[in-house]
Amino acid sequence: MISSAAVNPVLEAEPGLAAVDRMIVSTGRLVAHGLGACPPIANTFAILCGAEAKDALNAFRMLLWQLRDHGWRRMRIPPPGFDGPSHDERAVLGLIAAAQAQDQELLDARLRWLIRRDGRRCAETAATVVGMALAMNGNFVLIRHQPSG
Fold it and tell me: What pLDDT, on a 0 to 100 scale, did the predictor assign at position 8?
């Protein structure tokens, strides 16, 4: 596990979220708002994902692009610095957690809820790459209940 100081460049304040969850939320916000190429993100992924950092970061970007381009609706991603994760951000965390847990039934259900058929395979692969890179370095995302809307 990492300390909260290690993710300070992209840290969001949210009680109850682990450092890895905050990193995913914060990075997603930066990517969604066109700021995803900043060095602190690459550094944070290097800390969390080790040698797999570059692949994990590229997969995370791909996951967000698939959700943007093939999602059932436009995702609501607050700007960086906004307190607490949105329902959509919690859904992304749940998707990564299901991939990380290798729970295919849950992963399929979450994918069906978030994304149209034409983007699911790529989104599944991307979520799995992110989840496995984190897990191989001892960082785990918690399974979350699916948001209701």
Answer: 31
Residue type (1 letter), 135? A
Residues in the chain, total: 149
Taking each helix axis as running N to C, give the angle between helix 39-49 and helix 53-70, from 0 to 180 degrees, rounded to the nearest 10.
110
Cα(46)–Cα(119) distance, integer angstroms: 27
How is residue 115 annotated by DSSP?
B
- Burial of 37 (C-beta count, 10 Å sphere; 0-12/13-18/19+): exposed
Q: Following CA atoms 10, 42, 22, 144 in sequence, which dihedral angle do they give, to the nearest 10 degrees?
A: 160
Task: Answer for the pair 143, 100: CB distance below 8 angstroms, yes or no.
Answer: no
Helices (DSSP H) in 19-135: which residue ranges? 19-32, 39-49, 53-70, 87-100, 104-114, 117-135
**pLDDT tens track for 28-38:** 898 888 877 77
pLDDT digits 0-9 by tens, 89-118: 999 999 999 999 999 999 999 999 999 999
Nearest CA to 30 out of 69, 81, 73 is that of 81
